[in-house]
């Protein structure tokens, strides 16, 4: 285009401005997001958890990692280097000369605007002698002085400067590109082209392709699609899956195969150590020829999981692989539960194939608890506590204490608990109590209703039932304190009762001394029974002091009730006679009664409407709120990663072994949580017995089952002759009525004329 020029930055000054801005846009946000400022907070958090979780494997690994990790140091070094580059570029830019400032010849000659020609020439002679190249001056400065002198002394140059700001007249439009000129230099063209092709034709396509390939292989929960398909195949094939079969399916996940996951490894020593573990474990279906259970990676993962559940020691190399397998297992079991729920929904909607049984889904939940705690299914839940070994359980399950669960241990008196755990020292006992005090104690309240219905408490066939479950989490230590208070109060009450019994015993002993006392007591009892039968006499005898205080008050209350009833009957009869005499008053009373009934119905409707609006607002808030999944760290001695307390909540028909509502994974229960479980009511009327089940994914022995009774009524029929729906076609009926009236009037007129 004519009159335009594109020029690169020959000196590279403009490129420094661009480079400074680019580095600043990277360094400033990176410092805000990547600076490891929470390192001290993590150290403080671990220090606060040390007393309870100090013996846990995940705690020791996290503490070691935080002390030995060099990642925070590398992040700090990289960010500091970036800031050093940014400050160096900013300093370089601040030192650059301003080349594109507005041209002013008076400033070049150090003169005030409006100076005379003689002053301009005089100043020019002085500066030219000073800056002439022959005198040792700067040539560029001398050329600017000459240009300024000509601009102020030549009429044409001065006119151009005043009009265009340039002594040479109007110039071409110039566009500067903030890149140094060496980039487009012909000598460097091949190098620049090579860098450009490498960046945009190799690196960028590889990065995008890798991301795309990974995204299509993994699900939203970062689990291989092939693993999900494997779980679906075997859950469809084996609807009723026991724990042994479930372990085989779990360890067949393709994440444990080195061909599908680079984190998984097959070591040369596996051929020696894995068979040795198989011999120690016993029967684990090694000869199973069904793929993929017979593959080496699946067999190794199965052996490592079973060794973890048996709390067996393995070599250091296998221990690293075992941690990898155990760490991945809870997420895979959750995926199996999701797959089982999907198959159940498909079976309920379509039919034609077998849905997984309830025992299969519950075994997935139980296996998650077992893996987190490193315990076999048949072991006691007391082994979750520190310092408890197999040989110690005989003290707990003895006939004297009969402690088999954590709840039994909590319900013991402190003296009995200390006596039972005497094999522990004081320090170990305090540690056990501190750990047990952090275990969760959940209270579960349920409310059954049919939302969006006139009568929310009436459950009809086929209606959508909503069970609102309120979960409240407390610590076992709170239960300790309450029980200690209750035991203290109970001891005081027992002491008073014992004192009363002693007094009674004394009186009985004293009464047995003479037969006359016995007869007197018998006669007194007979008199009391007679007094109870005749309240009017009881009143008079109470005045004489022959009746005890409690009996007298009871007799007085009974007499008062009889008098009130008699007066009510009398008033009713009087009202009836008065109403017979005055029908207008009876009509007014009936109108008042109907008005009060209408007001009561309206009040009930308003209450139901407010409750419905509150439930809708609650649901909307629950959808909008994004709660953190960080609840409470679970105490797990052998799990290699910090595990948060999560729960499964669902409704099941344990008689038919079917799911009524899909399991809801409660991941935000910190103090209290409200969960709504929905399911369609049965199509047949009758009484149904369901169960609301709460299962932990971290602890053994803390599951809860609460019965849920469902009374299903017949659905109301749609009334065709409802008064609000009998809307006549007014126009047609009015026209027909007018026509018939007109005909009748004409007939009457004819008859009159005749």
From TrEMBL:
Example GO biological process: nervous system development
Membrane topology of this protein: Multi-pass membrane protein
Biased composition (Basic residues): 515-533
GO MF term list: protein transmembrane transporter activity; RNA binding
Compositional bias annotation for Acidic residues: 596-610, 728-754
Basic and acidic residues bias (residue ranges): 567-595
Spans annotated as Disordered: 482-614, 719-754
Transmembrane portions of the chain: 15-35, 70-91, 190-213
GO cellular component: Sec62/Sec63 complex
Keywords in alphabetical order: Chaperone, Coiled coil, Endoplasmic reticulum, Membrane, Phosphoprotein, Protein transport, Repeat, Transmembrane, Transmembrane helix, Transport
Highest taxon of the lineage: Eukaryota
Biased composition (Low complexity): 534-558
Stretches assigned to the J domain: 104-165
Location of this chain's protein in the cell: Endoplasmic reticulum membrane
UniProt cross-references to InterPro entries, sorted A to Z: C2_domain_sf (IPR035892), DnaJ_domain (IPR001623), Ig_E-set (IPR014756), J_dom_sf (IPR036869), Sec63-dom (IPR004179)
Primary role: Mediates cotranslational and post-translational transport of certain precursor polypeptides across endoplasmic reticulum (ER). Proposed to play an auxiliary role in recognition of precursors with short and apolar signal peptides. May cooperate with SEC62 and HSPA5/BiP to facilitate targeting of small presecretory proteins into the SEC61 channel-forming translocon complex, triggering channel opening for polypeptide translocation to the ER lumen. Required for efficient PKD1/Polycystin-1 biogenesis and trafficking to the plasma membrane of the primary cilia.
Quaternary state and interactors: The ER translocon complex consists of channel-forming core components SEC61A1, SEC61B and SEC61G and different auxiliary components such as SEC62 and SEC63.
Protein name, entry field: Translocation protein SEC63 homolog
Organism: Nothobranchius furzeri
Taxonomic lineage of the native organism: Eukaryota, Metazoa, Chordata, Craniata, Vertebrata
């Amino acid at each position: 285009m004519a009159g335009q020029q594109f020029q690169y930055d020959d000196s590279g000054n403009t490129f420094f401005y661009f480079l400074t801005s680019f580095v600043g846009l990277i360094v400033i946000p990176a410092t805000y997001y990547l600076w490891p400022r929470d390192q001290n907070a993590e150290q403080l958090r671990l220090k606060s958890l040390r007393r309870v979780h100090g013996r846990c494997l995940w705690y020791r690994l996290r503490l070691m990692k935080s002390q030995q990790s060099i990642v925070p140091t590398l992040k700090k070094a990289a960010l500091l280097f970036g800031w050093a580059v940014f400050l160096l570029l900013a300093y370089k830019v601040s030192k650059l000369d301003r080349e594109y400032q507005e041209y002013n010849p008076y400033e070049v000659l150090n003169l005030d605007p409006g100076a005379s020609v003689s002053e301009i020439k005089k100043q020019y002679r002085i500066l030219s002698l000073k800056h002439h190249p022959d005198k040792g001056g700067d040539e560029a400065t001398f050329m600017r002085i000459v240009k300024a002198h000509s601009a102020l002394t030549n009429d044409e140059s001065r006119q151009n400067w005043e009009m265009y700001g340039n002594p040479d007249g109007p110039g071409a439009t110039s566009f500067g590109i903030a890149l140094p000129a060496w980039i487009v230099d012909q000598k460097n063209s091949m190098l620049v082209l090579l860098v450009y092709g490498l960046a945009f034709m190799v690196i960028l396509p590889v990065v995008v392709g890798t991301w795309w390939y990974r995204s299509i292989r993994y699900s939203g929960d970062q689990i291989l699609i092939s693993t999900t398909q494997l779980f679906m195949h075997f859950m469809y094939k084996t609807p009723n899956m026991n724990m042994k079969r479930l372990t085989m399916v779990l360890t067949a996940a393709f994440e444990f195969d080195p061909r599908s996951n680079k984190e998984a490894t097959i070591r040369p020593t596996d051929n020696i150590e894995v068979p040795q573990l198989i011999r120690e474990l016993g029967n684990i279906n090694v000869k199973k020829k069904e793929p993929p259970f017979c593959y080496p990676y699946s067999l190794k993962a199965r052996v490592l999981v079973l060794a973890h559940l048996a709390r067996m020691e393995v070599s250091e190399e296998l221990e690293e692989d075992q941690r990898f397998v155990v760490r991945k297992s809870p997420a895979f079991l959750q995926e199996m539960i999701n797959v089982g729920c999907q198959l159940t929904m498909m079976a309920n909607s379509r039919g034609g194939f077998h849905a997984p049984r309830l025992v299969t889904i519950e075994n997935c939940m139980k296996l998650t608890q077992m893996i987190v705690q490193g315990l076999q299914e048949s072991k006691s839940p007391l082994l979750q506590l520190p310092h408890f070994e197999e040989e110690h359980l005989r003290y707990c399950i003895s006939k004297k204490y009969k402690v088999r669960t954590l709840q039994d241990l909590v319900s013991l008196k402190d003296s009995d608990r200390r006596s039972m755990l005497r094999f522990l020292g004081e320090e170990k006992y305090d540690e056990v109590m501190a750990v047990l005090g952090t275990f969760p104690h959940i209270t579960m309240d349920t409310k059954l209703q049919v939302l969006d219905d006139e009568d929310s408490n009436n459950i009809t066939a086929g209606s959508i039932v909503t069970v609102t479950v309120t979960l409240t989490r407390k610590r076992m230590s709170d239960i300790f304190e309450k029980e200690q208070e209750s035991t203290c109060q109970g001891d005081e009450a027992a002491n008073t009762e014992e004192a009363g019994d002693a007094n009674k015993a004394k009186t009985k002993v004293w009464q047995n001394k003479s037969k006359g006392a016995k007869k007197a007591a018998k006669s007194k009892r007979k008199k009391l029974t007679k007094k109870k039968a005749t309240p009017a006499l009881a009143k008079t005898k109470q005045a004489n002091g022959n009746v005890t205080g409690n009996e007298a008050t009871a007799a007085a209350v009974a007499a008062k009730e009889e008098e009130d009833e008699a007066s009510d009957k009398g008033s009713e009869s009087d009202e009836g006679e008065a109403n017979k005499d005055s029908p207008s008053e009876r009509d007014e009373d009936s109108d008042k009664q109907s008005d009060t009934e209408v007001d009561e119905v309206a009040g009930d409707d308003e209450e139901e409407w407010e409750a419905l609006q509150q439930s809708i607002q609650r649901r909307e808030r629950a959808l909008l709120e994004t709660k953190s999944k960080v609840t409470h760290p679970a105490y797990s001695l052998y799990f290699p990663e910090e595990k948060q307390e999560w729960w499964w909540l669902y409704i099941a028909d344990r008689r038919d072994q079917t799911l009524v509502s899909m399991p809801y994974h409660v991941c935000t229960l910190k103090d209290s949580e409200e969960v709504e479980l929905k399911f369609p009511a049965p199509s047949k009327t009758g009484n149904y017995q369901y169960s609301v089940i709460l299962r932990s994914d971290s602890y053994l022995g803390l599951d809860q089952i609460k019965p849920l009774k469902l009374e299903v009524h017949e659905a109301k029929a749609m009334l065709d002759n409802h008064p609000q729906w009998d809307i006549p076609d007014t126009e047609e009926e009015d026209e027909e009525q007018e026509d018939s009236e007109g005909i009748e009037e004409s007939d009457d007129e004819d008859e009159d004329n005749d």
